[in-house]
Amino acid sequence: MLENYADQREVVLLFSLLFFTLLQRARRSRVIFLQRLITRRAQRRRQAALLCIFTAFALQGRRPRRIAWVLPRPQYWFDNLLNSNALNMWWKENFRVTRETFHFICTAVAPVIRRQDTILRAAIPVETRTAIGLWRLATGDSYRSCGLMFGIAKSTAIGVCKDFIQALCQLKDQFIKFPTCPAQVREKIQDFREKSTFPNVVGALDGTHIPIRAPKENHEDYFNRKHYYSFIVQGIVDASGTYLLTTSGFQFTPSKHVG
């Protein structure tokens, strides 16, 4: 029994040694395989980098030119209108101003909205920028429609209108002035007295609701008596219809506004 046990023990030790040897060889083979794989990948990366460098040098000076920086859009109708003297009535009907007032506005806002020409393309003229802003304010058309009317993209129409409105806001204090001295107040009262029987009237006040989307916060404050969301614009004009004071942005509160 002891001899058989010793023989079995030797066999187990022999197989253990053999298994350990095979395991070591497998590990060495795996390490060698991984090293070769990493080396091959590094070589491929170097080859790809060299190929990119050689391709860049080969294509240097052969970069294809862009066909167009701006999509072709029809925009000649406004140029014809600007250069024609036979359509003065059309200005008032569509831009809500006369030709003379249009050019006055162009001169006033030009320092703010004028853009420089680049080597890529010419900038949109001040007259066209002013016309786009006035068309948007006068008609309420969408930016997409304004872009189609003046041959520009929708995103460009948005930027032009924002620049034009910001320019008007910067100039408003030069033109919208409420009378402050007694002489100016008496002059406004006299103007109203000549046109009506109301005494001691400096200006006429009124307001309107501008529709808006429902705000995420406190939306109930913007729901007006006409059953839509809006904020209030209020203005005061003199006897000739010239604005003396404007304010906007106040929400409608049912507890404060009755009627």
UniProtKB/TrEMBL annotation:
GO terms for molecular function: hydrolase activity; metal ion binding; nuclease activity. InterPro entries: HARBI1-like (IPR045249), HARBI1_dom (IPR027806). Residues 205-248 form the DDE Tnp4 domain. Its cofactor is a divalent metal cation. Keywords: Hydrolase, Metal-binding, Nuclease, Nucleus. Pfam families: DDE_Tnp_4. GO terms for cellular component: nucleus. It is found in: Nucleus. Belongs to the HARBI1 family. This is Protein ANTAGONIST OF LIKE HETEROCHROMATIN PROTEIN 1.
